[in-house]
Amino acid sequence: MIHFAGLTLPLLAATMMIAIQAAHGKLDEDVYETKHVAVVFRHADRAPDPVELFPNDPHYESEFFPYGLGGLTNRGKMREYGLGLFLREKYDEFLGQLYRPKAVFARSTDYPRTKMCLQLVLSGLFPPQAEQVWNKNLPWQPIPTVYEAPKRDWLMIPEECPEYLHERNKIQCAMSKELKGYDEFLEKLTSLTGKDMTGHNLTEVYNLYHILTAETHLGLPIADWAKDYYPHGKILEVTNKWYEMFSKTNRMRRLNGGKLLRQIIDHMDAKIAGGDRAYNVSLFSGHETNVAAVLQVLGIYYPHVPAYSSAVIIELKRKVDTGEHYVEVIYRRGIPNDHETVPIPGCDPICPYDKFVGLLEHVTPTTEELACDKDAPFETNEVEHVC
Q: How much of the chain is helix, strand and coil, in % rounded to 5?
């Protein structure tokens, strides 16, 4: 047996390994390997949507050339591509260099901007390498994605489901006394915008916030009166109230962001079980409503509007020495491009998988709740009848 300063060779090797791991802040009991990454993200900078336009807007007649109404801007394309680069850098070793079709699930809503953003993120994640290079002048490769028509996209657009709308209308009724406090402000906005902003569903104020954001990011001047209420102030306050109503109860959370959570848990379960259809990466390209809804079901939402290219990352980890699985939730704010691990209530930042699933059981929909009964006897405009 060879000795070095009183240490046997095997003991020396073990000592060196511990020293190396300690230098990187990783002792054996803290070493994890990534097993699955799910990302729910918002599209990036865009032109105003048609539903957001108001008559007194100085840009009311604009076509927002060359992007068109609701179109993704060049700045937005760069921002969303940057999200793909961020994910590539963070998970480079886990992803491997080559795109593997069976390892990636990529879904968007049926909007041009969210479809484009999904392609941009995939472009940053999987530039062609080695034998996948098909054009040396184009560092890009086509990657298939899926989406549902809006009227049937109950996973990412719950507003299309009568059952969810019924629950939201009940909340609007329950909050009617509180919402009356905004009546005077809503009437004032109606006069300033030339568009009816009254009504306690607050959707038109929500739309107003987003058109002002879109125009600001395009570098366009907004109306002088708007500067008294935006980007901070009463318009943001009312918009935050809209998000509060969006997923107010556990029932609403199950019918809203809970459906995405259930999909992600199903993908993680498949990965743990080692099935043939076990994805490494699940991407969901949507809207700020999707990001907010997932934050709400995780219990980590705070009053704010998720920014362009913001993302919730849910990472499944396996502890190397025990084989046990854990979950880490990361929130990337988009603007600015910082990110942090956010522990869900009742658990550590690196949360045991079974505990994670158990803590969120009350906001995870049943199989019956995943479906949407379009023939349910609910009226989408029932508020005036039930309040």
A: 50, 15, 40
